[in-house]
Amino acid sequence: MNVYRYEENPLITPADVKPYHPGFEVIGAFNAGIAKYKDEILMLLRVAERPVSPDPNVVLAPVYDPKAKKLELIELRKDDARYDFSDPRVIRDKTQSAGFAYLTSISYIRIARSKDGHRFTIDDGPFVYPSNEQETFGIEDPRVTQIGDTYYVYFSAVSPVGIGESMVSTTDFVSYNHHGMIFCPDNKDVMIFPEKVNGKYYALHRPTTKSIGMPEIWIAESDNLLYWGNHRHLAGLRPGKWDSARIGGGAVPFRTDKGWLELYHGATAEHRYCMGALLLDLNDPTKVIARSDKPILEPDAPYEKEGFFGDVVFSCGVAVEGDVVKMYYGVADTSMACAELSLQEILDSLTYN
């Protein structure tokens, strides 16, 4: 597979983003939804900000208070035996069966804009910020589907009751309507198809099971984009391969002559994330026609291998121009990059059922 990584990669790093919150540092600008709007490419960045503690023995956990409509900081001492601080992303409560307590950062959505898809300017403030009790720990990993003149932006909404998928819609990327949660916890990696198929909207999603089952890709249908049903299992894990531990949607599926092409992520038990492809039937996207035996993109570049969470490439969205697939992707849970691939090479690399 021929892959052309942009010379400017990473296109956006945490150092490029000014913190929105006073006294915070930006630790991630990644996993952005991608949209074409007028003459620009927009990245709807997941910006993760962490409060800087003045006391090295205290960790500050940010939590949005929807009643007060402001961000609160919870002080947790490192010598408090109840808490486990070993994971830089989360603080775990060892006295609780679930083990989870707080996140160490708060995420929201911020827009970066580009005329050429290589050089981006970043808005000064958030586009979508936590606003309700389902988003108290932040909103993460947005994706964007354009249907007509409306852009549907959906994202992981994180709170103590779990991670679900919420959605807003906009026509101008200035104001938006909040539609609430469209997939309840625990669920993420939602990808809404950009058009109806046989009168139905379709969406990929990834339930996180805590009993029987594995983190795999499902598909659902809807009449109105808000209420989803007829859920069916679409694609599973493959022992011994690059997608043996977890899989989920990456970019919004796009139409090709051969079928709907979905660029999805897969990971091993060692948390190495690669990108591959699923080809779905044009008239019945619940049918998988073909799949990648080998990744189409692996974490090889230094900025993909090193970062907040290394060895990660995570597709976020594509711009397709003829045979060129411009894939924007998150790297190392830290920054954003782009690579160009040949659509025909991707299709030719698949193993057909």
Automatic annotation (TrEMBL):
Family: Belongs to the glycosyl hydrolase 130 family.
This protein's record includes keyword Kinase: no
Protein name as annotated: Glycosidase
GO molecular function, one term: hydrolase activity, acting on glycosyl bonds
Record Gene3D superfamilies: Glycosyl hydrolase domain, family 43
A Pfam family the protein falls into: Glyco_hydro_130
Organism superkingdom: Bacteria
Keywords: Glycosidase, Glycosyltransferase, Hydrolase, Transferase
